[in-house]
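Forwarding these from the shared drive since the link keeps breaking.
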Amino acid sequence: MPADPHDLVVVGSVNADLVIRVDRRPAPGETVIGSDLETYPGGKGGNQAVAAARLGARVAILGRVGEDEHGRFLTEALGRAGVDVSGLLPTPGPSGVALVTVGPEGDNSIIVSPGANRHVSPADVARAGPSLEAAKVVSLQLEIPTPAVSAAARAAHTAGARVVLNLSPPQPVPGELLRLCDPLVVNEHEAAFLLGSPHRTDGPDHRERADRRQRAKALVALGARSVVITLGPAGAVVAQGPDVIAVPSPPVEVVDTTGAGDAFTGALCWRLAVGDDLVSAARFAVRVGAAAVRRPGAQSSFPTRAELREL
């Protein structure tokens, strides 16, 4: 990967999303008929890189793809979107694959087979050191091994880049990694996982809002420098020190929520890279996330700046 400066370097997963739409999800042991299979470029790392690139960011990605047809498909799709793929390493074996089921309300269920993503290593991060050192923001997720994520966070922090960690899929992470996050980005389920508490949505709206504020403060207390909790159609909450600020989302008709969280995070990272404060960046990012649910697929649904102005 060259040392030319980027607004954003994404260290993360690249997957082929295999998507089927269903009227209802099967119960255990049951078979249901779904739509024709559709294949989209995806993976949390790839999605965040494309989301930022569509908006005009200079983006590079560090990761791995398999030496298979999916790997070629994914590399070409990222390149067409304007992402620097010189740090995307071909790896013997299969590429990562996500099996995505989309329900009638546009909600999704996902199973990920990591494939080449499981081979991203601290050594890969070390080889990409010049690019990480030149980046303004480094975005991380957890679809690659935690040692590589931690190594990237340390390298970025040492170089003065801002570290953004999306705790997805949720899993335990070292306290050292949390302390480098600025912000830690989680949805409500991921926040509950990290705090070891149930995710409640059965109370009055005012109680839910209070719970969200308390969760955001509790995550900051765990060590993260700042926290963003995404709330789907309700927008997001941003916590910095003692301050917790609600950021509403525009109402939209939901077609497919696949990749909406990645669209949010990619947009957030780009706006942080160009100098926005965290609340302003989150206000922009919720609009991008809302725009992304209006079309099917992940990367195929991400808006350009011109499309975002229509929202």
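-- next protein --
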Amino acid sequence: MEYVSYEEFKKMDIRVGTIREVEPVPETDKLLKCMIDFNETDEEGNKKLRQIVSGIHEFYPEFEKLIGKQVLYIVNLEPRKIKGVESNGMLMAVDGSSDSLGISKPVFLVPEVEVPPGVRAH
């Protein structure tokens, strides 16, 4: 195991986001493009959603059911293009139970009760 310092860990900005929109990334089987509410606004004060791409489509074929779900995200990663779609953060999950092929379904890290979008994890 490689250790990180507490100072390095403190650099991670982990927040609760509420999934507001979700759709498959064209020409892929695994990727979903999610629009996440972190209670952010643009320069004019309008609500802004953050686009985050996650490789969870195969586990959530009825992806529309993810709308409204609150999940933890790392929000201060450098933007990254995944199959041509920009992603501005990373979904946090753990490996859940495995299916008959040994594939683990991701289990989201979620707050115990609903909280305002954008709340920071400590």
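The two ends are 22 Å apart (CA to CA). The chain has a mean pLDDT of 93.

- D.
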